[in-house]
Design goal:
Layout: H1 3-13, E1 21-23, H2 26-34, E2 43-44, E3 50-52, H3 56-59, H4 69-74, E4 78-81, E5 87-90, E6 96-99, E7 117-118, H5 127-138, E8 158-162, E9 168-173, H6 174-179, H7 185-191
Antiparallel strand pairs: 1-3, 2-3, 4-5, 5-6, 7-9, 8-9
Length: 192
């Protein structure tokens, strides 16, 4: 074990465990971080003041296809598991998505005027057909606000998210939907 890894372990043993985040006193962290090696199980955030460690048991509860915690943190984000066991990811811009029940909650990033709609998801998967049915049900067209270039596409800057209930489509910010990776309604329907 490297000196840094042993210092980190020693520091972590003296800290309060907040379920998933071990906070290091910034005054004590420098010696531990100097000898830190990448092959340890710890990840150091950019600000070098917080060490994050997930146990095997915690990682076993990670939502399917959600971002890998170590990669997410290296990109400047944070990951926590709240008191209800919900994984919560925050990107470097401060945008947060929780995964209650293992699925993303995009409510905060849904379109402000287009309400969720219920459609029958295509099986086998046919996203353009699901988009068409959702656009029609939501009353979207070339002349609506927001407009759609084609019934087979979501409005610019948005995508239709297949909710895990297997019938609800939610218009959400396209970049957020892509960044906060997940399993969702398509997977649920395909398993039936």
């Amino acid at each position: 074990m490297s000196k840094g890894s042993s210092d980190l372990k020693k520091n972590n043993n003296n800290l309060k465990n907040e379920k998933d985040i071990y906070k290091v006193n910034p005054n004590d962290s420098e010696s531990a971080l100097k000898g830190y090696q990448q092959n340890s199980k710890h990840t150091v955030q950019k600000d070098r003041k917080q060490v994050v460690s997930f146990t095997k048991e915690q990682l076993a509860t990670k939502p399917l296809y959600s971002p890998a915690p170590d990669k997410w943190i290296k990109k400047g984000g944070t990951v926590k598991i709240d008191e209800d066991g919900v994984w919560v990811y925050t990107n470097k811009k401060g945008q947060t998505v929780g995964y209650p029940g293992g699925y993303p909650d995009f409510t905060e990033f849904s379109h402000p005027t287009v309400k969720p709609v219920e459609v029958e998801f295509a099986n086998p998967t046919n996203r353009p057909l699901d988009y068409k049915n959702s656009n029609i049900k939501a009353g979207l067209s070339k002349d609506s606000d927001p407009p759609v270039a084609s019934l087979y596409e979501a409005p610019e800057g948005y995508t239709w998210h297949h909710h895990q209930d297997g019938r609800t489509m939610i218009l959400v910010d396209k970049k957020i939907h892509r960044e906060f990776t997940h399993t969702g309604g398509i997977s649920v329907v395909n398993r039936k």
